[in-house]
Amino acid sequence: MHIQFWSVGKSNDQYVAEGITDFTKRINNYFTASWKIIPPPKNASSLIEADQKKKEAELILKQLDTPDYLVALDERGRPFTSNQLSSFIQDRANDSTKQLIFLIGGAFGLDSTVLKRANFTWSLSALTFPHQLVRLILAEQVYRACTILRNEKYHHS
């Protein structure tokens, strides 16, 4: 199974890039993993919130393939413990999912069309984080879930 992390926004700032790179390399010991940074639409700053979300949705939806399993990160999604996330990932692998995509939306979140396409909607936290940190937290949590699957020492339950 290939795990992809998609995020709308600018490329990673240096203060988080090293951590994201490190955790992504670690995940590759379990599943192949990669990142796709989707640049915001042109003139995004001049668009109203709804139009910006729609433009981002168009960019996202045209890059998805039908069999892709899309996990949309959204504050209204279902929360997971680390153990539940590991079970979720294992279930996708057991279902022969070829591509598992974790999607972080833009500054205003995800458009309803993307949420409708999503196979699952996940709330990473009830807290609000900067997008850069969400990327780092997501990579670390997926790595943690992988170590749980192999009963390794990284996660202490």
Identify the notable features of this structure and list them briefly.
five-stranded parallel sheet, 5 helices, globular, alpha/beta, 157 residues
Mean of the pLDDT scores? 94
Give me the CATH fold name.
Alpha/beta knot
- From the alpha carbons, calculate the radius of gyration and give it in angstroms: 15 Å
Note the overall shape.
globular
Helix and strand run: EHEHEHEHEH
Taking strands numbered 1, 2, ... along the chain, how are they ordered across the largest sheet? 2-1-4-3-5
- Helical content stands at 40-55%
In the CATH hierarchy, the architecture is 3-Layer(aba) Sandwich
Which CATH class applies here?
A: Alpha Beta
Cα separation of the termini? 26 Å
Q: Which structural class matches the secondary elements?
A: alpha/beta
Strand fraction equals 15-25%
Q: Find the CATH superfamily.
A: SPOUT methyltransferase, trefoil knot domain
Total count of strands: 5
How many structural domains in the coordinates? 1
How does this structure look, described?
There is one protein chain. With 157 residues, the protein is of the alpha/beta class. It has five helices and five strands; from the N terminus they run βαβαβαβαβα. It has one domain: SPOUT methyltransferase, trefoil knot domain (Alpha/beta knot). The protein has a five-stranded parallel sheet with strand order 2-1-4-3-5. α1 runs parallel beside α5 and α3 crosses α5. The longest helix has 19 residues. It is globular, with a radius of gyration of 15 Å. The model has no long low-confidence stretch (mean pLDDT 94).
